[in-house]
Amino acid sequence: MLRLLASVLLLGTTSALPAGAHQIESALTYLKGNLELSSSFSNGEPTQGAVVRLLNPDGTPQRELGSTDASGRLLIDLSDVADGVLDLQVDGGPGHRDYLELPVNSGQVDLDQVVSLPLSLMLVGLLVNVRRRSD
């Protein structure tokens, strides 16, 4: 059952990808005390208008933080989130997403510990969650 679901999801996502789709690459930096996300496609073009959101542990959307500007940048304020590890999604549309795992302590992100998560790991996590709910 799990293999069938994984196959359907993988086939569904690959058939929905437009020809010539580019991976999104994102980076975080602190500039003058502000956390800035910078995001671009693998060809260097900025991901203008990409929605940036926090995700719940099951991969569902939690809260939108904003959208990237014309240069693919967004200032992020995490001062009101609980300490722990957060999942962040940069959503440039179908086939154009990036996922970052952010360790947050007192509203600050430890940039040395940020992990970029491949889409395949996000799908596996979602499949495990779906299976747990159906058991």
UniProtKB/TrEMBL annotation:
<protein>
    <submittedName>
        <fullName>Conserved hypothetical</fullName>
    </submittedName>
</protein>
<keyword id="KW-0732">Signal</keyword>
<feature type="signal peptide">
    <location>
        <begin position="1"/>
        <end position="21"/>
    </location>
</feature>
